[in-house]
């Protein structure tokens, strides 16, 4: 009987820590300009990572924010979000992002110009074929205001700082 309990305990320990996820929460909400972001099983849902940070599915949140999202297939984990003249380059597995402005070159191609690295205190990850990010640093790079309402468990995002 002791061996059975030991096996069950080990199984659940491995299951929980295999993705670096300590907790998931259906109660974490995100609102952009007072409009709730709808999370589905297909889009993914926010969760709390091993550093006790909330990670959210990158695409659904950034697209509702009004950014264009581009996955660079050949890059092995680089995602770019663009809104207006600002761009954010996400490096999956890293704890930083790049914020940059693109300028049109002489041949009509857009090239990064004025790049600023932005540090995160947790890594960006891929989980269930989706990119998850700590949303504050990414949206603040787009000059959004990001706050946390502990009472409603909601990440509140305003398009422009007040």
UniProtKB/TrEMBL annotation:
Keywords: Signal. The keyword Cell division does not apply. The keyword Cell membrane does not apply. It comes from the Bacteria. Residues 32-157 form the Copper amine oxidase-like N-terminal domain. InterPro entries: Cu_amine_oxidase-like_N (IPR012854), Mao_N_sf (IPR036582). SUPFAM superfamilies: Copper amine oxidase, domain N. Residues 1-23 form the signal peptide. This is Copper amine oxidase family protein. It comes from Schinkia azotoformans MEV2011.
């Amino acid at each position: 009987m002791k061996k059975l309990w030991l096996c069950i305990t080990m199984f659940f320990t491995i299951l929980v820590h295999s993705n670096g996820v300590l907790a998931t929460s259906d109660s974490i909400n995100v609102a952009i300009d007072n409009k709730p972001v709808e999370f589905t099983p297909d889009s993914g849902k926010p969760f709390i990572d091993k550093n006790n940070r909330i990670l959210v599915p990158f695409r659904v949140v950034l697209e509702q924010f009004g950014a264009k999202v581009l996955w660079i297939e050949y890059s092995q984990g680089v995602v770019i979000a663009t809104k207006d003249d600002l761009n954010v380059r996400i490096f999956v597995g890293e704890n930083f992002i790049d914020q940059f402005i693109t300028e049109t070159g002489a041949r009509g191609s857009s090239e990064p110009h004025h790049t600023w690295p932005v540090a995160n205190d947790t890594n960006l990850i891929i989980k269930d074929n989706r990119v998850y990010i700590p949303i504050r640093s990414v949206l603040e790079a787009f000059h959004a205001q990001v706050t946390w309402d502990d009472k409603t468990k909601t990440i509140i995002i305003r398009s422009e700082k007040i």
